[in-house]
Amino acid sequence: MADEAEATTSTESYAWKYFEKLKCEESSRCKKCRAVIKCRGWSTSGMIRHLKSKHSIEKTENLKRPSDRSHDKDTSEVKRNSVQQKMTDLLKKEETKEEIVGKLAAVDGFSINAIAKSEFIKTSMLARGYKLPQSPTLVMDLVHKQYNVAKERVIFDINKRKNVGVRFGLSLDEYTSLKNKRYMNINLHTSDTFWNLGMARITGSVPAETAVEVVENKLAEFQVNLERDVVACVTDGASVMVKFGKLIKTCHHTCYAHGIHLAVT
């Protein structure tokens, strides 16, 4: 209305539900009978007496302006959300301490010393309810434990496929690290997935016969037999691996990419 004034407080008497403020003077008009009531200092006593005597309206609760109710609703919603969801709730608590440390080492490439000394990693682990060991040796123990768990999962997956008649392909790659240590990496394949079975440490000279033994021993760790379970094997084209292919009973292929690389270099 033209003569309606803005409310001056956030919390008002229930009487204001039945009265409208007049801008020109400290008074209000009853919405039911249009009577004008003086309200010095915007006191609601006169309005309450009028409602009780003239209209038999009597209440004790205070009403809030719609804008205040909306604000309170938003505030309560924010409070409720802050209680329901915390930053730590977003963290995956189902991961074990061994899984987290194992991923830091194997996936993210952190060294064992870096994991043991990182204050950020320690704090993050505490947020998940885990206490990270300060000793690199104990951190390495966690990695070994996770390796054994992951290895059992791989063995289970492989045996599950073996039990339904699946046979596997094999890919091998020998390489030398920056510290001049030699390894052979062994991967097992099916048509839809593969498993990295890890690296076999190689010391001294490795003739083809020794290479066959290294591969057979690594496969045996995962309950795979080279002759019975593997139908084909891919290696590089080095002469020792060509001889390796002649010693094993499975089908052997040299890597085309390696051959092309040798041809152009």
Automatic annotation (TrEMBL):
Q: Mind naming one GO cellular-component term on file for this protein? A: nucleus
Q: Where is the composition biased (Basic and acidic residues)?
A: 55-80
Report the residue ranges that make up the BED-type domain in this protein.
10-62
Q: Which UniProt keywords apply?
A: Metal-binding, Nucleus, Transcription, Transcription regulation, Zinc, Zinc-finger
Report the domain of life of the source organism.
Answer: Eukaryota
What biological-process GO terms show up in the record? post-embryonic development
Q: Which GO terms describe its molecular function?
A: DNA binding; zinc ion binding
**Main subcellular location of this protein, as a coarse class:** nucleus
Q: Where is this region: Disordered?
A: 51-83
Write down the InterPro entries for this protein, in alphabetical order. Answer: RNaseH-like_sf, Znf_BED, ZnF_BED_domain_contain, Znf_C2H2_sf
Pfam families assigned: zf-BED
Q: Where in the cell is it found?
A: Nucleus
Name assigned to this protein: BED-type domain-containing protein
- Per the UniProt entry, what species is this protein from, by scientific name? Scylla olivacea
